[in-house]
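Hey Z.,

So I finally got round to the 2-(butylsulfanyl)adenosine thing we talked about over coffee. Here's the setup:
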Amino acid sequence: MSRAPRKRLEELRKLIRRADHDYYILDRPTLSDAEYDLLFDELRRIEGDHTDWITLDSPSQRVGYPIAATFQPVRHAVPLLSLAKCTTREEFDGFEARSRRYLKDFEDQFEYSCEPKFDGLAVELTYEDRVLTVASTRGDGTTGENITANMRTIRSVPLTLADGAPGIMDVRGEVVLGKRAFEDLNRAREEEGAELFANPRNAAAGAVRQLDPKMTAARPLQFFAYGTGRREGVDAVDQAAILAHLRAWGFLIHPAVTSCLGADEVEAFYRHILSEREASDWEMDGVVLKINDIALQQRLGALSRTPRWAIAWKFPPQEAHTQIEDIQVQVGRTGVLTPVAHLRPVRVGGVEVRRATLHNALELQRKDLRIGDTVVIRRAGDVIPEVVRVLPDQRTGGERTFSMPDRCPVCDTPVVRGDDAVAIRCPNLTCPAQVRERLFHFAGRGAMDIEGLGNQLIDQLVTRGLVHDPADLFSLKQDDLLPLDLMAQKRADNLLAALAEAKRRPLARVIAALGIPSVGEHTASVLARQFRTIDALMDADLEQLASAPDVGPIIARSIRTFFDAAATQDMIRRMKSAGVAFPPESGRSGEQPLAGTTFVLTGTLQGVTRQEAKQRIEALGGRVAGSVSLKTNYVVAGDDSGSKVDRARELDITILTQREWEELLDDSL
Ligand code: IVH
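And the result:
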């Protein structure tokens, strides 16, 4: 075999990597698109002729990594912590005072690494021998999901690191989607009738959690690095040095990142980033201030979930003025009528908003809102904002009051008022708006997550009488789908595959998807854990229901009423016969969420013997060790604990109180 193409191949990879770095990291393109494409085509050609020369770190292999059917769990070698928060200068001063007290003898000004707080998805990238081997979501901080194939498609994620990077390293950062890309994406989804993303963070998270990496690749995601997990052999005295290393090894560090001395400089940084927030394409919800010196960080250590050496100073919610052009009434999945303000489109925090919920008639009255009013609206991260107040001196006299209708605007059934006279409901369970909303909720994220079953498709299925309730979805056939608008063979196949997959969703998700009034995701998972099967849940009496954690008599009644309805029972029966499996929760059915986690117990635990504590950990796959070492993940400190806790502090190991430990076990169930 001639050596020339081999050599050229290496050269091309190098040129393309450099061009990617110039473009995506330095934001300074050095090749024209045409030049870049030529190089890329040549690389593809050589690799096409010599498929055995293709390596995973080739720029051609960003898409094309082996895909897994589901996201496998990944344990983080070092847990990912979250951040304590403050919202005012006084609170920030409080943080400094606490740090100072904790360090006792420290009298200098603190130096901080000051960074924007990106509002995206936290991700960890693991490099072994300078090659990206695993990318994972934050998950619960201890275990995340394997999203390697998807992260590889992001151009600001280096597949290999520049010279000088250590053998084993975990890089942490945030995956974000720009506001403009987010708006384009939502516009396209609106046209397709797909569910809209509430904010760029959700859109980024959705993109990263696609099973098909091509879908991730299609969204212009960016990865900003902000820290490390393991970084063996990296010599760095402070956070600023770590970020400088990361930049040199090929990562994107936000250009605003800087170091500041003392609280006044920190406040100036906060104000500066706040002033840039609106114009920035990246959604930022505050700044993160990290005590720079790593020796000080180690002395300060961490509480169970947050380090003592860092804090997030959050921005206030974003407000704007606009006019209410109209007020319309929406019928929700439980029949509740909600007034919605249609606004003159306005940009808030760089994202366009057009609607705001007005909650209910009482709220409308309390705020004295009229059609034509100029109002203050507030966006707290999500695109659907709330109306804060009216600006009465802007009134011209032409404003119109609005009152809630006496009949359902969709099916014309007379409405009923709840006991509290606040909620107004359409009592017709077959009201097309309710049916549609129930299906929409059922198919959505956090529920059954049925890819490809969007708003418009549901509309068609309901209007044509093909689907009346969620159970009907599972008996749809090719022949039902093909005559629908915008439906091609491939789309029908995909939808049927997605429906087949959804039949195996865990019980908690199915319960959440049913849309029982007052039962959200949290209560659904509590119920799944408590009752284990759909039949046991359906059979539970009020007392049994109310004995589940966080379920009171009102929720218990709502669950009972839901399952007592003949229509519900019929629907569950049809779901079962269509093959919906309602599998119980993984925690107690043999899966081991704490596998690979080592605990050390010290001091006296209240109300539980050492032996019982050990059994509880082991039942979830964890291990209990006698002494603290680098392999320890958590030290559980009971009353009067001593040297083991000191040792844990020295080694920077997370220390849990009994309560935090119990929460961790509960979360793992
Ligand atoms: S550092 C030990 N730095 O904020 C400190 N986090 O509550 C742990 N975040 O979801 C995080 N920008 O992904 C750090 N510059 C930044 C950040 C940042 C955003 C996110 C992080 C996590 C949350 C922490």
